[in-house]
Amino acid sequence: RTIxxxxxxxxxxxxxxxxxxxxxxxxFATKKFDRSKKIAAQDWATILEAARLSPSSFGYEPWKFLxxxxxxxxxxxxxxxxxxxxxLDGADKFIIALAKKGVSYDSSxxxxxxxxxxxxxxxxxxxxxxxxxxxxAEDFKLSDDKAKYDWAVKQTYIPLANMMTTASFLGIDSCPxxxxxxxxxxxxxxxxxxxxxxxFGVAYMAGFGYRATEIPNKKRQSLSExxxxxx
Length: 231
Prior knowledge:
Blueprint: H1 2-26, H2 41-52, E1 63-67, H3 71-78, H4 85-90, E2 93-100, H5 108-117, H6 127-139, H7 145-169, E3 173-177, H8 182-191, E4 200-209, H9 223-226
Antiparallel strand pairs: 1-2, 2-4, 3-4
């Protein structure tokens, strides 16, 4: 009985590995979406939950996600986001990811995360706060607002990867987007009251839906070119 269970475990692990690699192989930056196909509510909730559960440095989650359903806003964005036109036209779901500005050991955002999310007492002088202060100032040399914002933007790409991979597992296509004029997009969102530019900036966009064309074979560098094992 024990031997049989071990064989079953090995088989299931192999199946799991194949499923993982298939999801990554099938994931493609979709250039054209089928606008007639809609994502099931439960699937979309799962994709968003994958974003919510994503890790971030120190667990400070310096992000927010705008899901743009409004047709007028989608249309307006086309002239400001050249790389998003196909997604705005055909993708069932369209996200604009925002990165938090001014994240520091003594910021209101960190205080919120510590008290309201982690449910811990907050103090600027706590070991955690002082450790984060040292990390920013000395380890990563995040000495000014721009450096701190750039650090926050990096964090937002973790949930992007998780959302796209989760979508692929569910048979849903996606397209990550950096093709836009950031000033034009941010000013437009500010005019619409969707973003406080003192608090957030735009990191990227992403479309989710179902492809209208076949994907090409995936081409990547070989593993030996990008991985070096240090023994």
